[in-house]
Amino acid sequence: MATTAKTARKPNAAFMKPLTPSATLAAVVGAEPLPRTEVTKKLWDYIKKNDLQDPKNRRNINADAKLRPIFGKDQVSMFEMTKLVSAHLK
């Protein structure tokens, strides 16, 4: 009789590796190295705290003075945001 043990899913090591944000991104999330997941979480906290989601289409984020240099434009979709933020992580 074979038993199948359920193993907990291991988080992707590369995904959890702390990355250093650029000076521009550090203005929003802080300067200490963070995993990608935490950077995204802190960005969303900032977006919600400053009410930057587009009221008509909640999937879009309106950039304020701190986010505009990261995004490179006035509005981005939430899917586009992660790609643009990646460029600011080392």
UniProtKB/TrEMBL annotation:
**Domain DM2 intervals:** 14-90
Going by the entry's taxonomy, the superkingdom of the source organism is recorded as: Bacteria
Record's keyword terms, sorted: Isomerase
Molecular function GO labels: isomerase activity
Would you tell me the protein name for this molecule?
DNA topoisomerase III
Q: Which organism is it from?
A: Pusillimonas minor
